[in-house]
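Now for today's protein.

===
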Amino acid sequence: MSDEIKTLQEQQLWTGNYYNEDMGSRDGLLDKLGEECGVFGVYGHSEAASLSYYGLHALQHRGQESAGICVADGDSFKYHRGMGLVKEVFNNDNLTTLTGANSISHVRYSTAGESKLANAQPLVFKYRGGDLAIATNGNLTNAAEVKRKLEDMGSIFQTTSDTEVVAHLIARSKHTEIELAVKEALLQVEGAYAFLFLTKDKLVAALDPHGLRPFVMGRLGNAYLFASETCAFDAVGGTYYRDVIPGELLVLDAKNGLVEDRFSPIKQRAICSMEYIYFARPDSDMDSINIHSARKRMGKQLAQEAFVDADVVTGVPDSSISAAIGFAEQTGIPYELGLIKNRYSGRTFIQPSQELREQGVKMKLSAVRSIVAGKRVVMIDDSIVRGTTSLRIVNMLREAGATEVHVRISSPPFMNPCYYGIDTPDRKELIAAQKSIEEIRVAINADSLYFLSKEGLLNSIGRPKGDVNQGNCTACFDNMYPTRITEESEVGCGCD
């Protein structure tokens, strides 16, 4: 065994005092990209808080660190936020106090630094126009620049969130109408964002001009719904209405109903490719494209680009299952559950020995020996970040008796950090930015390795041709960022 493989194997799997401490900021065992955040909004329903609760449940995969709901009843705000999962933060007692017909809510994934309740959203502010609550998914690439200017003018910040930057811009606006103040504020920021703003009598939704973040509108009877993914509408009995258009500003109030406006023209369309590859739930539709179907097409395309003779195909759960099914269908090689995810391995409060730490990945993932023993296995995964997880899973399959392990990745090599709301390491920590594909194959102990081509990915997603990269953001693969990136742009989510 090479020294490089030994080094990867011996890396400590815990970053804190116990397994999964500070789970939200990085999962030390399954080296995946960090989820973003999720937003859910309701306008015009007497059970707005309850709908938000179930909507957030459906979006829990987008953030497991904190959750919050803010409700307006026409006169005042009521809100509750807390650290933990939705079911841990909310109960019958606090939900029944959240009365009102309009609400915005949020699940958060921390991508840097300490988890803080102060950063949990929705953030609630008081300014001359009254109460204002804000929830967002995304990251402002010029937040540090704008924040410095605001501080020079006397602003005092209470959180480290990009969201507060926008609140200060709104508070400094000369406009008294919230929609005009929001327009003015959003014209001063850059990056990726899906915003929900709530006042005592209005709800405002806005999507960045590039449409980098997913954002959809739904209906439930006469009520309007907003969410990061369509799966949240299914959870509350609602129906998908349409996607929010990049640069669009939607305003809802009792007097005018829904007003469709804009704060910016559409710029280069660039929806996040990783939503299709990894982040979104398989039952969601994004820009009228079903996520499960797109991932199956990625698997089929992988099979066409890099067929290998094998006995079984298995996917790394959960996001790679669809691509694995597609690979199996295309090749005729049987798909099997060769890897099983333990769904109850969350936070633990024991401090294991170093020997147990080195086996810790098995707390989250197990190989099915009877399926893989004596077999040539094709292992499908959605991405390789640092390479540590891929090595552990390949070795796990070998320990379970696999005679060969061929790794196929349903995305191009991840070589560049994301500045738009995904938790990614620095470029120097991304294995594909430092090594050739052959060197990565050796590092993860695979018999063969292939990454889906960028052209294959874009065709699999299936968005219309004509726009740059078919309207997808592919910066993590090709360094083609659709917005200006400053030296101060932070990697990760603006919720921090």
Summary: The chain has two domains: 3-21+290-462, 38-274. Residues 458 and 470 are 7 Å apart (CA to CA). The longest strand covers residues 130-140.
